[in-house]
Amino acid sequence: MDQTHPSPDRSGDGNGDAPPPSRKAGWPWIVAATVLILFVALVLVMILRPQPKVTTDDAYVTAHYASIAPRVSGQVMQVAVDDNQFVHRGDLLIALDPQDYQAALEQAEAEYQQDLAQVVVAQTQVQRQPAIIEQAQAQILSAKAALLSSHPNAVRYDRLASTGAGSQQQHQQTVSQEAQDEATLKQAQANYNAAVFQLKGLRADTASEAAKVNADLARVRAAKLNLSYTRIAAPIDGVIDRRSVQVGNYVTPGAAMLAVVPLDAIYIEANYRELALRHMRPGQRVHIHVDAYDIWLNGYVQSIPASSGAAFSPIPPNNATGNFTKIVQRLPVKIMVAPNQPEARLLRVGMSVETTVDTSLQDGVAGQVDPDVPVATP
User: Fold this and answer.
1) What is the pLDDT of residues 226-248, one digit of tens each?
2) Which single residue of 16, 29, 140, 208 has CA 20 to 30 Å from 131?
3) Would you tell me how many other CB atoms lie within 10 Å of the CB of residue 48?
4) Mean residue pLDDT across the chain
5) In order of start, what are the domains of the chain with their CATH numbers?
6) Weakly modelled stretches of the chain, pLDDT under 50
7) Sheet with 238-241: strands ordered across
8) Which value, to the nearest 10 degrees, does the dihedral of the CA atoms of residues 188, 191, 193, 195 take?
């Protein structure tokens, strides 16, 4: 007799237990957390690890340009150049009215010729004075000779007059002649002394006139210089910029009229954070991106500056007040553009660029410390 067994109820009534959830449901969160941690770690490593290449966009093109200003005042007669014109060294830029300076030169030359003639006159007198001295010496000799004759006659007639053999008149004449000859001798000696002293005075006058001639020559040279300053030439090769002068303007010394920018001597001033200088050394290669033309140029670090940008600012920070906040400074690194790059001609002063220095993690300290300079020790 078949017995029928009741089948178990699998409908899962309220008295049955639910199956446990699968443990595989938590693995996606673990994987996501792991990826996030690895990403953060990678970012921190990239930020904190020293980078062989340091980049800044705080950089621009600059140059040591020549500011053209007159050295003398005058009215502008000619402006031989225009904005953005290329000029060579020695080319005429501006011409001032030369008439006043030409007249001053002619007056200085006339004074020079006049004083030069005075020198000739003084030299002639000096050359003639020895003859005058010799003439005075001859007069002395003549007076002595006359005195040698009159003195014995005076003595002889004095004896004759005392004995009554001679006349009193002859005695008086011989005495008078002797006194006259003595006076003539003294006068001749005085003339000789005066002639000797006059020679010294004439030599001094000659030196004085020669000094005047030298002063006149200096004035002539100054007048020629002032006349030459009326024609202002380009001191260097470059492009004309910042022109502010026109024909008819009256200019004064020191007033800037235009500038000559040497485009073949431009360089990059890149303001790097001081922390980026740790591995930077002169001579390292630099990649330069010019924003205006979207081109890349090659360069090299020429020098590391001696001060930060804030050191010589009009209002430098005063950290001695107690309100100190540490701020990372920037230093303007000088970067030269490598030669033989035709696209470098496109650079203009003031353009913005981005520079990337390939430091290769070199030791920047050892590369800049001069081994010949002794280190001070306490």
Assistant:
1) 999 999 999 999 999 999 999 99
2) 208
3) 7
4) 82
5) 53-64+262-317+324-368 (2.40.30.170), 68-92+235-259 (2.40.50.100), 99-228 (1.10.287.620)
6) 1-16, 171, 373, 375-378
7) 66-68, 258-261, 238-241, 86-87
8) -140
**Could you give phi then psi for residue 54, rounded to 5 degrees?**
-115, 135
Altogether, the residues listed in the chain come to a count of 378
Residue range 248-284, pLDDT digits in tens? 999 999 999 999 999 989 999 999 998 888 889 999 9
Identify the pLDDT of residue 377.
41
pTM, two decimals, is 0.67
CA-to-CA dists, residue 330 to 124, 197, 281, 308, angstroms:
75, 78, 16, 6
